[in-house]
């Protein structure tokens, strides 16, 4: 009788162990699913940030470009370099406070623009600032394309 | 005479092409909002000289002529640089009264869309002392309403 009981107990332990293994497997799968969802949400959020900032960069770059043109005597009427540099600095702050800033290439360009924008000869650095802004835009585009 | 008709036809054709393309694909046309606005509203695109070669070909066909917008912008620039407060009705009085309201609104809107004369105070002051029509000077560009 005791032999039967210990045999049944052993069988129950094996079944219990199998159930545990099955549950561990299920938990791992659930964890993987959660990670996939989290990655997809992070990607969506990054894409949102990129698409949100991309037009702002174009706007600031286009506005600064107006200061470099002298095709007509009216090309620079109604423009204020001080205010446009201020808009540039606000844009840089926005990028810096964003996840995008952790991207190496973006960080390099943003740091370079910040240095140029804060220098005393900012009006002589406009072309370089514009080029760096377009590089940043291109990095954004690359990021959107490669991550899809 | 015949040349004038052909030029006028080309002008209208170009206007249609630019506005219709912008209606379909927006900024992807490569044209800025202010340029599209000026073409759609027959304003001489003074801020875009040098950007597009055909601007001066049609000089005589714009309803708001080069000289008119030049003089107007020069005056606005003076006011803006001095940081004087000016209302739309003041401009209307200076530029010939109510019958010129529409031209003034179109010229100011063109300036606004080209990010000229920045600063909320300047625009708020214009609109605060202006008619209902002037209250839409600073709204977002919408090709369906702005053309």
What is the number of strand segments of chain B?
Answer: 0
Q: Low-confidence parts of chain A, pLDDT < 50 over ≥5 residues?
A: none
Separation of the first and last Cα atoms of chain B:
29 Å
Q: Which percent bin holds the helix content of chain B?
A: 55-70%
Number of helices of chain A: 4
Q: SSE string of chain B, helix = H, strand = E? A: HHHHHHH
Proportion of beta-strand residues of chain A? under 5%
- Shape annotation of chain B: globular
Q: Count the domains of chain A.
A: 1
Largest sheet of chain A: none
Q: What structural class do helix, strand and pairing data of chain B support?
A: mainly alpha
Domains of chain B (count): 1
Assembly state? heterodimer
Description:
With about 150 residues, chain A is an all-alpha fold. Chain A has one domain (about 40-145). Chain A has four helices and no strands. Chain A has helices at about 1-70, 80-95, 105-120, 125-145. In chain A, helix 1 runs antiparallel to helix 2 (about 80-95), helix 2 (about 80-95) packs antiparallel against helix 3 (about 105-120) and helix 3 runs antiparallel to helix 4 (about 125-145). The radius of gyration of chain A is 29 Å and the shape is rod-shaped. With about 150 residues, chain B is mainly alpha-helical. Chain B has one domain (about 1-145). The radius of gyration of chain B is 16 Å and the shape is globular. Chain B starts with a helix and ends with a helix. The relative contact order of chain B is 0.14. The model of chain B has no long low-confidence stretch (mean pLDDT about 95). Chains A and B meet through helix 1 of A and helix 3 of B.
């Amino acid at each position: 009788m005791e032999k039967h009981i210990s045999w049944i107990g052993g069988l129950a332990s094996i079944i219990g162990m199998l159930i545990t293994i099955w549950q561990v497997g299920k938990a791992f799968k659930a964890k993987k699913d959660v990670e996939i969802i989290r990655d997809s949400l992070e990607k969506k959020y990054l894409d949102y940030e990129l698409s949100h900032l991309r037009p702002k960069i174009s706007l600031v770059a286009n506005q600064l470009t107006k200061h470099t043109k002298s095709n007509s005597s009216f090309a620079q009427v109604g423009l204020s370099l001080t205010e446009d540099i201020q808009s540039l600095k606000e844009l840089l702050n926005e990028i810096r406070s964003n996840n995008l800033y952790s991207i190496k290439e973006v960080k390099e360009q943003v740091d370079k623009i910040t240095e140029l924008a804060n220098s005393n000869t900012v009006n002589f650095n406009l072309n370089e600032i514009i080029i760096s802004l377009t590089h940043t835009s291109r990095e954004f585009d690359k990021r959107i394309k490669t991550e899809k | 005479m015949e040349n004038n008709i052909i030029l006028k036809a080309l002008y209208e054709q170009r206007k249609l092409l630019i506005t219709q393309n912008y209606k379909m694909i927006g900024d992807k046309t490569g044209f800025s909002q202010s340029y599209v606005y000026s073409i759609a509203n027959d304003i001489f695109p003074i801020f875009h000289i040098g950007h597009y070669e055909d601007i001066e070909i049609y000089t005589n066909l714009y309803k708001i002529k080069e000289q008119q917008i030049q003089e107007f912008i020069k005056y606005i620039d003076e006011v803006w640089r001095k940081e004087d407060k000016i209302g739309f009705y003041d401009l209307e009085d200076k530029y010939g009264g109510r019958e010129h309201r529409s031209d003034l609104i179109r010229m100011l809107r063109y300036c606004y869309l080209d990010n000229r004369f920045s600063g909320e105070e300047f625009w708020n002051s214009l609109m605060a002392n202006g008619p209902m029509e002037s209250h839409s000077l600073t709204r977002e560009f919408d090709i369906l309403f702005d053309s």
